[in-house]
Every structure is written in C-alpha cells, then in structure tokens.
Amino acid sequence: MAKGKTTVFYCQSCGHESAKWLGQCPACREWNTFVEETIEKKSAGRTAKERAAAGPVCLSSIEIKEQDRISTRMEELDRVLGGGIVPGSLVLVGGDPGIGKSTLLLQVCRHLSADGKEVLYISGEESLKQIKLRAERIGHFSDRLLLLCETNLEIIGDTIRSRKPDAVIIDSIQTMYNEELSSAPGSVSQVRESTSVLMQIAKGLGVSVFIVGHVTKEGTVAGPRVLEHMVDTVLYFEGDRHASYRILRGVKNRFGSTNEIGVFEMRENGLSEVENPSEFMLSGRPEQASGSIVACSMEGTRPILLEIQALACHSTLAVPRRTAAGMDYNRVNLLLAVLEKRLNLKLGNSDVYVNIAGGIRISEPAIDLGVVLAVVSSYKNRPIDEKTLVFGEVGLSGEVRSVSQASQRVQEAKKLGFTTVILPEVCREQIGQVEGIRLCGVRTAGDAVRLIDN
Ligand code: TYD
Ligand code: MG
Predict the structure, then answer these.
(1) How close are the terminal C-alpha atoms of the chain, in Å?
(2) Does the pLDDT value for residue 122 go beyond 80?
(3) Which residue owns the Cα nearest ligand 1 atom 23?
(4) Partners of 92 in the beta sheet?
C-alpha cells in the first residue's frame, strides 16, 4: 500500500470507524453497513500544521464584537437560528427526502437576495430548470441570486472564493465529492471531507453556508449525523410528509438555544410560517369524543397547546398492544403502570394507543397528566369538556409534580378560549387567581380523574 494511504471501514449509517469489516455495527446495530474507504493522511497533517502556526493567545486579549445577524425575514426560522444567520456560520438542515429542505432554503435565498445580499445556490440534485420551476411556485426572485449545478467541491470552492457571496446553499452534501478521495459521493469520508472544506471556506471568508443533508434508513447514503459535530448549527425537519405542517427543530446551536421550534405549513407557493402554532395544532379536533384532551408543552420560549388522543379497547392478544406516537413509548408504559397500580384501572387486557395529533414529538413530562386523563377518558368512554386544558408531570406514586412556566401556559389557554385548567396544586398556589379562567389544582392523578368524572 502506498505511503500515507490507509483503508478504513466506515458504517454508512452512523459513521462508526473500524479497522476491519464487520457484519453488524457495534455503535448503531445496523447490519451490513460497513464499506471500505481509502483515507489519505495528508489532510489531517495540514490542519495540524495550521493550528500550530496560529499560536496560543490570552483570553483577555480576545475582543468580542456583537455579531451582526442577518435576518432571513422568516421569523420562525430566525428564532430557531437564535435570532438570524450569523456570518461565517455553517448550518446543517436535515430531514427526510421531500419534506421541504430545498423549498425552505430557496425561500431564504429569495429573501436574502431581495435584501441586497449576494446568494449562491449550488445544487447537485436538480437541474437549473427544475430549480426554476420550483422558484416560479414561490414567487419573484431578485437577480442577486446565482444558481450553479455542480458536485465537484474544488470547482465549488473556486467559485465561492472568486464570487465572495454573503450566503451559500449546498443542496445536498451527499452529492458533493472531492477528487482526492476515491470513495463514492455520499460515503462517510466524502461527506466528512466535503464538510471540512466548506467549513474552512465559511470561517475563512465569513460566508454563511447552509448544507442540506438527507437522513435515510438505507445504508447507501451516509446519515448527516457524522457531520453534526463539525457544523455550528443543526436543524431538523420533523412532521409527517403527508400532512401539510412541518416543524423545524434546532438540535445543536453554537449561537443560540436549542429548545426553539419553528412551525411551517407547506402550501402551493412554498412554506408559509404558522404564527399561532397552538391554533394550528388544535384544528380538526373531534367534538365530544372520549379519549381526547388538550395539553400544554413549552417549546423553548413558547407554550404550544396540543391534542393528546388515547384509545383503550379490549384486546384479543395474549400480550396487549401498546403504541405511542409523538412521545416516548416507555413513558407511556410507565404512566399506564401508574394508572394500574395507583388508580386501580384494569388495563391488563386492553390495547392502549396514545397519539399526539399533529405529527409533533414532545419530550416534556408536562404532558403526563394529559396522557393519564386521555387514557382514563377512553377507557371509561367518557368525553372530557373540550374547554379544559391540562398540564403536570406524574410521578411513580401517582403524585402530580409542578412544571415550569405555569402562568405562561395558563395565559396561552386563556388566549385560545379555554375556561378550565387542571394543573399541579403547587403551580396553582404560585399563580393565584386568573380572571376569566377556572384553575383546578390537583395533588395526585386520582384527584384529576375525579375532576373529569364529575
Ligand atoms: P423539497 O423542498 O423538494 O424537499 P427536499 O428538498 O427536503 O427533498 O419539497 C418537495 C415537496 O414539497 C414536494 O412534495 C412538493 C411540495 N411543495 C409544495 O407543496 N408546494 C410548493 O410550493 C413547493 C415548492 C413544493
Ligand atoms: Mg431537495
């Protein structure tokens, strides 16, 4: 083997590195995902030398300038980015194919170019005509937007260096390739190398770079998870591809909070912002149906109301079926166990399905009490008053524990016309009275169930 060249096996699903071929990846447990790739040691040596040349500096001598953020003129996206685009930052936008990554970034291009910024959109997936067709659906574009169909990273690098645009979109990183590497585009080493080249360009020239990354289950395309640690910000699209709404969630952000979400709706003319997500999430709610209740979850700084649906029905299986969509499966099992033990609800021969309507995923325990009440309501086939909102964490002994920002949640409920809020007693004591809304503090899940029974 030539000097400086080694071959390594990479898991194409998670990027795990191994010296020899393995049938199953020890990191992500996927089968048959290892592919041999040739690695040249050259690039690693180059960066090490550059780093040494810079030399250490003392902390007090570093000046911090308030970064001028560039607004994308889409408030939902700005919020997820932490207040706009930071010049020289590298942003990864991930999500399933067809969810709207290209559409969102083309809209960003449209707004930036209309604001007088020079934007370069590089597509390795679609032809210029296809991009034009999409652009025509979105609206009028300024001449400051330049398009390039290219997959060779060297040419892309040269173009960026000569044009010096304010922002660059790379659609997608899986199609880009570096001639120096022999592996195929989309393989782990190509994706990693391409990202590091783009990072050097972004940091060196102060250009903001958006990278599109596909997440697929098949082993052929490297998941963008391997680049998460290289980029500054990681945004993921959530939501059902078949439904019209899309949720953009910040997973990592060096320049802001990662709790924020942006809600969009896919329309005929591209993605439009949803200003009041609660209203949107609750649209199409069934009337007077058992097993449905509205809960409140905080997503970053915003309270979002959502409908929790449960269906408990007689099981014909030896082991009853339990499913959870939109929340943690184990959490649902835990709550069902609490119901069984503390409230004497015999769920042992019932199938239980829990779903959070709207395709959103919630990990906040504040929705626990909502799940409990929805299951009880379905089990007893007793609808809950539709103007009732509920929030609170449920502990293993059936106690209802306090949650943060209770008064903000109550205000949101009031804004959307709810008349009753069931909440932890501790939170009720903190809030006191709120005009126009009845607050029912509960100490245990049993108290809450008795409230809806009446
Ligand atoms: P796209 O941005 O191509 O997805 P990705 O780049 O993430 O693969 O989104 C394509 C989907 O969006 C496609 O199913 C068509 C739909 N769409 C609309 O509904 N309205 C529109 O205005 C546009 C541009 C796309
Ligand atoms: Mg696309």
Answers:
(1) 79
(2) yes
(3) 270
(4) 211, 234
Q: Contact, 202 vs 56, CB < 8 A?
A: no
Burial-class residue 33 by CB neighbours within 10 Å (0-12, 13-18, 19+): buried
What are the tens digits of pLDDT across the range 311-361? 999 999 999 999 999 999 999 999 999 999 999 999 999 999 999 988 788
Which pLDDT does position 217 carry in this prediction? 56
* Residues measured by CB to lie within 5 Å of ligand 2, the ion: 102
What's the CA-to-centroid distance between 69 and ligand 1, angstroms? 27
Q: What is the dihedral sign for C-alpha 226, 228, 234, 236?
A: positive
Q: Cα(2) to centroid of ligand 1, in Å?
A: 46
What is the pairing mode between strands 350-356 and 302-314? Answer: antiparallel
Q: Which DSSP category does 231 fall into?
A: S
Question: pTM score, two decimals?
Answer: 0.81
The reply to whether ligand 1 has any atom less than 6 angstroms from the CB of 137 is yes
Instruction: Tell me the C-alpha distance between 176 and 155, whole Å.
Output: 11
In this predicted structure, what is the pLDDT of residue 221? 42
Q: Is 103 in the pocket of ligand 1 (CB under 6 A)?
A: yes
| Maximum average pLDDT range among 9-18, 64-73, 120-129, 181-190 | 120-129
Q: How many other β-carbons are positioned within 10 Å of the β-carbon of residue 361?
A: 15
Number of the ligand 1 atom closest to the C-alpha atom of 138:
22
Confidence of residue 21 (pLDDT cuts 50, 70, 90): very high
- Strand, helix or coil at 280? helix
Tokens describing residue 300: 């970053």
- Coil/strand/helix, residue 18: strand
**Residue pair 257/275 in contact by the 8 Å Cβ criterion:** no
CA-based nearest residue to 370, from 408, 426, 331: 331
| Residue 97 alpha carbon to ligand 2 centre in Å | 7
Beta-carbon contacts of residue 443 (< 8 Å; ≥ 6 apart):
399, 400, 424, 425
Give the pLDDT band of residue 219 (cuts 50, 70, 90).
very low
Sequence-ordered list of residues with C-beta below 8 angstroms from that of 180, at least 6 positions apart, any chain: 40, 42, 43, 193
